[in-house]
Amino acid sequence: TKPADRPVPRAGILDIAPYVPGRSKATGGSKLYKLSSNETPLGPSPAAIAAYQATAAKLEIYPDGSAAELRTAIADAYGINASRIICGNGSDDVLAMASHVYLGPGDEAIYSKHGFNVYPIMIQGAGATPVVAPEKDLTAYVDGILELVTDKTRIVFVANPNNPTGTYLPFSEIRRLHAALPSRVLLVLDAAYSEYVRRNDYESGIELAGTAPNVLMTRTFSKIFGLAGVRLGWGYGPAEVIEALNRIRGPFNVSAPAMAAGIAALRDRAHIDAAIAHNEEWLPRVTEGIRSLGLDVTPSVANFVLIHFPEEKGRRASDADDYLVSHGIILRAMTSYHLPNALRMTIGSAEANEAAIAALRDFLHRTA
Ligand code: PMP
Known about the structure:
Elements: E1 33-34, H1 46-54, H2 68-78, E2 85-88, H3 91-102, E3 108-112, H4 119-125, E4 129-133, E5 135-136, E6 139-140, H5 142-147, E7 153-159, H6 171-180, E8 186-190, H7 206-211, E9 215-220, E10 233-236, H8 239-248, H9 256-267, H10 269-291, E11 296-298, E12 304-308, H11 317-325, E13 329-330, E14 332-333, E15 342-346, H12 350-366
Parallel strand pairs: 1-13, 3-4, 3-7, 7-8, 8-9
Antiparallel strand pairs: 2-10, 5-6, 9-10, 11-12, 12-15, 14-15
Helix pairs in contact: 1-9, 2-9, 3-4, 3-8, 10-12
The structure holds 4'-deoxy-4'-aminopyridoxal-5'-phosphate.
4'-deoxy-4'-aminopyridoxal-5'-phosphate (PMP) binds near residues 116, 159 and 233.
């Protein structure tokens, strides 16, 4: 065989389906309501914005690559050990590090059918094989996952709550999954939306990641903290796992403005509480409002809802998407999640939520 005449990606890279972000622009409407990426309508804490801006005075200096101050702030906020935290350029970065450390060609990693669709990108990016587990009622299904475990399984990814379904797995089920998994399998508990959950039996994974030798919990500043634009996330797990992730971490993977903003955001408890209260008020109102139009909504515990449309021509999700976008309202199409008849809507401001429900009503009535 002749040597290639150009750089050739290694096997499997071009089989990865590119990540398709939500739309950011509308095609009409006098106001823009972006409810497509689970961003908070409250924005970041004003203290986080001020801290971010203050770092502009010394942008020529490299950030602290060990993120010591941020890890201490996280440790204080959550009552955990700073040496077992790793920070990332978004939690995506932590998911990528875990994949590259524990997966390689021939290995398998399991995630649920409608799990977060960055997992297959990370799995395939590491050269491993994604294995898709069945669900029950759009919710992760422990027995379905366990049936797929083989000698090659190295990671199981579970987001709880899950994106894009908003569904919730009782923590007793997570514990059952963990207990049944071989201890050589890393269980990644993705808790990106955990602050929004209002359930007595909810655990984000802090305790399990703090005690088990094979559990990594991931968290983000992108959702309730309103810092999606700065890219900041973290992982918490066994010392050995964190040490291994640190071996491949980009030396300065978190920027100084991001760290400063994150530290300030963690300390503004009132802002976090306001975001929780807003979601607690609007999640049920949006759910009921959309159901009252005759559309199905998957029960959600997060800051978004999955809306199911009929298959009827003119009323499909893609028709609704086009209609809403032409009225300034951006929801998230779910075709890349194999849910062609659904749209995901983020809980937005009161005005945005009402505008979206009104536009959905108009959309359904316009053909009735
Ligand atoms: N996990 C889940 C379940 C998510 O929905 C997201 C954001 N879409 C992430 C992780 C990644 O978030 P980030 O990289 O912004 O921290």
